[in-house]
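Researcher: Go.
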Amino acid sequence: MAEISEAHDSDSSKSTDNASEAPTQPESEPEFNPKLMRKTKPGLKRLFLTFSVLFSFLLGLQFLWKSVEIYRSPLPFREIDSLSTQLGSDHLIFPLHFHALFVGFDSDPDRLRLSILSEITKLTSQNPKCSHNYTLSVTVDSGSHCLHSPTTSPHSCSYQCGSITAIDFDQNDDVAIDERLVPVFGGKTNEYSVVVVKGESERAVVGKNRRAWVVVGSGREVEIAVVKVAEVLVKVFVNGGREEGSIRNEFMPVGADGRIVLSFNLLNADPRDWVYDWDFRKIDNNLLAPMIEALGPVANISVESQVLYHTPKASFSYWDQQLQSYVFSTKDLPFFVNSNEWHLDTSIAAGGRSKILQFVVYVPSAKECPLLLQLPNGEISNTNGFISPMWGGVIVWNPQGCLKDDNKPTARRTIPMQDLENMFEVFTGQFRQLFGFKSVNIYAGASGVWNLLPSERGFTEWELDVLSRQHTCFNLHSCASTLGSLSRLVQSLPRMIIMDEIGKQVKFSLEAAKLAQSNASNGVYESSADYPSKQFTLFCQLPQGKQGLWQRMLFSTHLLCLSATIPSSTVLLSTRSKRTEKI
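Model: Structure:
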């Protein structure tokens, strides 16, 4: 075994030596096989496969892009910016046409016209948002012939020479004179006319329509007449008898949807003393219906009523021995309305963006009856009521004989109809005050006192014109401002979703704003009032969901723009809802 091992070791050593002595040979490289080589160029098959893969990639890329894309309906950004810039830099101009008629004068109409225009310029105050473009025509009727001043007004005067004389103004019936002037100046017209006549008893009256007349005495009648004519045209017909100006935004109690809900409430403070009811339907048909019909072009008004019990007031009163009654002063008015006990809720139809005005008839308990309101000067209020701006009004009604011993009646009583009529006349005055007008029928100007004829509808034609211009001016600027803010918001958030319904309503709002601007600039007040109500219904049908915030923003914008298109016209928009009696 040892020999074999040695032999094996010797053979291995020899092979190792031979391997080390042999030179190192490089490894053999793979030889090129011509049989496997492509002898022709690639054909259409490879090209088709390549384009198929590329097309599939591009097609899938579009689906992937659509799946992560933010949908945005195109909005008219340029038109919105143009409207906002135009209303921001330029005034919204309302054209107004005036006519002055001098009966029994021999003056030059052209000189009178220049004098009146000079006085109008002095009295006109520039509004930062809206202004007026005046055109004036003057007619002098001397009795034998008439002279007319040159004017650029497109409204030709319809007055026929000799239609009226100074004798027509000698009577003291101003209502009959006002009706007499309606056919003289062509009936329904948007022109404001002032008649100046000579007479013994001087007076100045503003009619229910767009007419006024001045009776001046002898002496400096021409100079006095010029000042009075300019004052009534600017201060009354344009500004509505307000000293602050022609446009007052804060005294326009109309909701964003152009609606007002008048909620009338009869409150019995303590039904253990007495219980009073009212015949509200008669009052509604006789007194409220004409007023609501007159305000139809300005707002859509609905009426509700209810009777509540156990409704004490929140303020205190004290006994006045001299007046033999309980008294509460104007300092107690902020605490009179008891919001905890007065549940002045309205129907579901009154919700949303409608403006709700509360009118309350408060019947005090026997413990504080009669209850009187004392004014700051110490006198007792004639109306025994007060208003709260943008909220409504309150009247305290004291039952007759409330100091007697029979203070515990068991039967339900009804407020006498005469007392109801008197109370609702006060409510009409309070409603006028909420719109910024005076409750008294007198305007005290620099040139004297003017008697304002009241209208059985609560608002005269020239007062409705003032409200219409105020309504259009405020809503149009609010619409342009909101649309401008909306445009900037959308452009600053590129990943905000904008659905087609939103874009559609934005375009409708922009069209309504342009229509309102065109009507105001051209003096076209006879347009349809049914368009805003249709668009309001359409917008309410938008679906809810993630776009709720958008819809609330655009809802106010859309309604402001549509409300601005409501003109001063005889077209009625009022649709009154059912009355509700709650016991």
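Model: The first strand starts at residue 92 and ends at 103.
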